[in-house]
Specification:
about 240 residues, alpha/beta, Rossmann fold, 6-stranded mixed sheet, 10 strands
């Protein structure tokens, strides 16, 4: 039984059809990387999993339960089991690092301030930034902002981490640092990770399996090695950079 399954997912925004009968399974404990050009709907899949966007048709199963049929309380509990790193980091500019990382803890749990401080320090250390709790987002580099946002994403000890273009806008050094963090956290926290990216170097480094989203459906699913050996022309085109972003 798959851990997460998208079944027959169709979604349109006005006349634009984003997905049509899309099917995809995610195994527990793996890092699945969804690749594809910009505007193909990769991020929409992550938002559907969090019920921030609803499909027009289909089902999304989480441990064999359709999340689209969950009531408000079950949806809240579902979201507590997931953390998301948004593309731009999405830190709150008016809150310091500690307050940003603590935000989901205050939203989802009734914890003492000492316990919140302990968890915040633990997560900030996990992303390699110990002792920066009092800094403001404006004082952080781009790479540091991504890592603080990642500390916030894992603050609730989620079972699933969703990454939306985690290396966009980063220089090569910070790109490698974030990619290594994704791999390390998957092992240390024993989480299931779904990563949306168009960066093939990152995808090959972090993925257990790759899924290519093309023409509103999943065109290919396989390991990085299977993708490199694939005779599928669309897989080859994407790997060789011939599909536009």
């Amino acid at each position: 039984m798959s851990f997460i399954e998208f079944k027959g997912i169709s979604k349109s925004f006005g006349p634009k059809r984003v997905t049509e009968g899309l099917a995809l399974e995610v195994n527990k404990g793996e890092t699945l990387t969804i690749i594809g050009g910009s505007g193909t709907g990769k991020t929409i899949l992550l938002k559907m999993l969090l019920k921030l966007v609803l499909p027009d048709r289909g089902a999304i199963l989480f441990e064999d339960k359709d999340i689209l049929k969950m009531d408000e309380e079950d949806t809240r509990l579902l979201r507590r089991r997931m953390g998301m790193l948004f593309q731009g980091g999405a830190l709150f500019d008016s809150l310091n690092v500690s307050e940003n990382v603590a935000y989901p803890l205050r939203e989802h749990f009734n914890l003492s301030e000492d316990e919140i401080d302990r968890r915040v320090a633990e997560k900030i250390a996990l992303v390699g930034l110990p002792g920066i709790q009092e800094m403001m987002p404006a004082d952080l580099s781009g790479g540091m902002k991504k890592r603080v946002a990642l500390a916030r994403a894992i603050a609730t000890d989620p079972e699933v981490i969703l990454y939306d273009e985690p290396t966009t806008g980063l220089d090569p050094t910070n790109t490698r640092r974030i990619n290594k963090l994704i791999r390390d956290l998957q092992k240390k926290l024993n989480v299931t990770s779904i990563v949306v990216t168009h960066d093939m170097e990152s995808a090959f480094f972090i993925a257990d399996r790759l899924a290519l989203l093309f023409d509103r459906k999943i065109e290919f699913v396989g390991t990085p090695e299977e993708a490199k050996r694939s005779g599928n022309a669309r897989v080859r085109d994407f790997i060789e950079g011939n599909i536009g972003e």
